[in-house]
């Protein structure tokens, strides 16, 4: 175990240095479509069961496959209508299985970042060398298929290990989504000391926990998104905030749910103070303009506590 369990220090919300987004916008809004590939018969994991039912779990496999076959294009059409680019949380094996999806993402000027190779293969229990191989495979695949650099990371099924953030910084990535501790970007502590940013990725508005596990109606999910946005937008008048909307095409792309995505994006984009950004754009803006001020603030907090 590491002597300190966390990749970040405490930073109270009040009194932080002010964040100013491009053109004085008060809230950076970004959408993260999770475009995933689930294996029909994945390797066994010692850490957790992959499927909910005895394998072959045809029901759950095919429900997720629906997202790549049908839901994705529906979702992409709605996002394009409102000028919202996606930042794709991508299982990079999909580049070879379904290159048609990647081609459309690139046509829409979406960012691709890595969500691991398959969503059925976790980082749990991997050595550092094994994790590095996954990161490098992701970087090479995304570069080959799109010409993009790999700047962001969300571990497959959020299965990051203790030193995953260290490895990501050492491999030259810019930001991580593996931490869920804030509504603003934050510096991440790594053993190399390289500048590495945590960008908010909000599980509370993620369609998987909301629709699958909390059994919330589409109507209530839309209101949840609006309420979440309203509070962050109000606070953004004082210092820039971030709202991420993590989505999955197999859920939001269902015929009876698509309307709520349309309504949510219509509502968000009707506000003048919104910066429609990608994860990469948020991370780089923060790194280049606010990272040092945040670290100085955190050092002051630690000094006061000593």
Give a description of the structure:
This protein has 306 residues and is of the alpha/beta class. The chain is 42% helix and 11% strand. Strands 1, 2, 3, 8 and 9 form a five-stranded parallel β-sheet that branches. Strands 4-5-7-6 form a four-stranded mixed β-sheet. β4 (152-153), α5 and β5 form a beta-alpha-beta unit. The longest helix is centred in the N-terminal third of the chain and has 24 residues, at 58-81. The radius of gyration is 19 Å and the shape is globular. The mean pLDDT is 95.
Features:
single chain; 306 residues; alpha/beta; five-stranded parallel β-sheet; four-stranded mixed β-sheet; 11 helices; 9 strands; globular
Task: Kindly provide the radius of gyration, computed on alpha-carbon positions and rounded to a whole number of angstroms.
Answer: 19 Å
Structural class comes to alpha/beta
| Overall helicity | 40-55%
From the spread of the alpha carbons, the general shape counts as globular
Overall pLDDT confidence: 95
Element-level helix/strand string: EHEHHEHEHEEEHHEHHEHH
Assembly state (oligomeric): single chain
Our measurement of the CA-to-CA distance between the termini, rounded to an integer number of angstroms, reads 24 Å
Largest sheet: 5 strands, parallel
With helices defined by DSSP (H or I, 4 residues minimum), what is the helix count? 11
Residue windows where pLDDT falls under 50 for at least 5 positions: none
Q: What fraction strand? A: 5-15%
Q: What's the number of extended β-strand segments?
A: 9
């Amino acid at each position: 175990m590491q002597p300190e369990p966390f990749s970040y220090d405490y930073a109270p919300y009040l009194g932080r240095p002010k964040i100013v987004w491009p053109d004085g916008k008060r809230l950076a809004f970004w959408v993260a479509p999770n475009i995933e590939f689930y294996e029909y018969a994945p390797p066994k994991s010692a850490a957790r069961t992959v499927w909910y039912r005895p394998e072959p779990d045809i029901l759950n496999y095919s429900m997720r496959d629906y997202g790549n076959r049908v839901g994705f294009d529906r979702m992409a059409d709605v996002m394009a209508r409102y000028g919202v680019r996606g930042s794709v949380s991508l299982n990079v094996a999909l580049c070879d299985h379904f290159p048609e999806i990647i081609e459309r993402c690139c046509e829409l000027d979406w960012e691709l970042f890595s969500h691991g190779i398959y969503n059925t293969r976790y980082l749990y229990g991997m050595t550092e060398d094994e994790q590095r191989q996954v990161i490098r495979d992701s970087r090479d695949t995304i570069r080959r298929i799109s010409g993009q650099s790999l700047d962001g990371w969300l571990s497959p099924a959020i299965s990051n290990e203790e030193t995953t953030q260290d490895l990501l910084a050492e491999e030259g990535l810019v930001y991580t989504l593996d931490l869920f501790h804030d509504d603003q970007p934050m510096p991440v502590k790594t053993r190399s000391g390289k500048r590495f940013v945590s960008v908010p990725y909000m599980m509370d508005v993620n369609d998987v926990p909301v629709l699958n596990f909390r059994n919330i109606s589409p109507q209530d999910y839309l209101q949840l998104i609006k309420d979440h946005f309203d509070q962050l937008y109000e606070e953004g008048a004082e210092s820039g905030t971030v709202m991420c909307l993590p989505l999955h095409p197999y859920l939001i792309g269902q015929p009876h749910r698509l309307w709520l995505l349309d309504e949510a994006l219509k509502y968000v984009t009707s506000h003048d103070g919104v910066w429609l950004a990608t994860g990469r754009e948020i991370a780089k803006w923060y790194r280049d303009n606010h990272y040092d001020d945040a670290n100085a603030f955190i050092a002051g907090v630690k000094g006061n506590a000593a």
